[in-house]
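User: Sequence for D-malate dehydrogenase (decarboxylating) below. Tokens please.
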Amino acid sequence: QTFKIAAIPGDGIGTEITQAAIQVLDKLAEVDGSFKFEYTNFDWSSKAYKERGWYMPPDGMAQLQKHDAIYFGAVGWPDVPDHISLWSLILPIRKDMNQYVNVRPTRILPGTRSPLSSCQSDPSTLDWIIIRENSEGEYAGQGGTTHENSPHTIATELAIFSRVGIERIMRFAFETAKARPRKKLTMVTKSNAQRHGMVLWDKVFYEVAEEYPDVEHDKMLVDAMTVRMVNNPESLDTIVATNLHADILSDLAAALSGSIGIAPSSNLDPTRKHPSMFEPIHGSAPDIAGKGVANPVGAFWSAAEMVRWLGQGKLDGTADKLMQAIENVTKAGVKTRDLAGNSNTKEVTEAVCREIGIV
Ligand code: NAI
Ligand code: MG
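Assistant: Structure tokens for D-malate dehydrogenase (decarboxylating):
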């Protein structure tokens, strides 16, 4: 079986970690023997935009549609305003490809250290999956600016919440929680200060909860949630939140687990009519780009999730093999600087490839 992958390395360390992920994916396919990957490389990036004036060609979505999955590095560079780069590439892909779920697992990998003292004695106290609504809410892209360049400028940024949009993300979150050992879901909003969309979120959450009597559920306000994540990490398991809230909480989660460099994400179209997209949650990291020191673990973990999604149950063992290889490597102390190690991207990548051949 051949899986067609659209690779969009993007900018900065996005290109470095995508190259590393492809090396690891090819090694995994070679060792497994039952499938292979065929990549189409798309040079859609801020660098290309500066040269030719566009990120994605007019038929870009049609080109992506011909693939089984999209592997994405990161987009954004200091010489292009970030709202232009994000709205030219990653956000339109998530919307047009119906990727309304963004799954962000977080745990502490062996041989790495959480800044939380409670997790240092027992790393298993932090094991979360954040389910991010990925299609609407605060990132609906609605709003505008009036009286621009005057003291009376007004800019609006509308958060749009639809019942359909909320119901489908809640069902996905309850299903995710139900499939995990603790069967526990925490829903995050800010429905004390925001009276409409957030209140609808709360309402639909409790409605859908009735369909899942075996899943324990509770509700948090987002500000209190940041405190709970730090003070009481073991009290959380599966978390569902809006586009903006989950974006922020998942960076916090990554930092609490040791580094943003290890955190993966899956942008899923659960209907499978469009390709889903897999990417580490970090950005292009201009401060370390080009130095060969980026942590590729978040990219590898995202690749493992891609294999799991493509296999539809049949390649779970192969995805687990990749995770085991990653964990053996961190445990052995082969880590990049962000994890207090002294290896570079290439050394970590080669170590993971070697482990794939062994585990
Ligand atoms: P960032 O995630 O690129 O970097 C934040 C900090 O974490 C930096 O100090 C960086 O060196 C470090 N870091 C990130 N990934 C790392 C890795 N794999 N290994 C080691 N250290 C790592 O976030 P920042 O600086 O806010 O954004 C930079 C650019 O990336 C911006 O243009 C932003 O818009 C874009 N961005 C794009 C995303 C995407 O394509 N999905 C997501 C987040 C940001
Ligand atoms: Mg983010």
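The domain at 114-143+158-257 is CATH 3.40.718.10 (Isopropylmalate Dehydrogenase).
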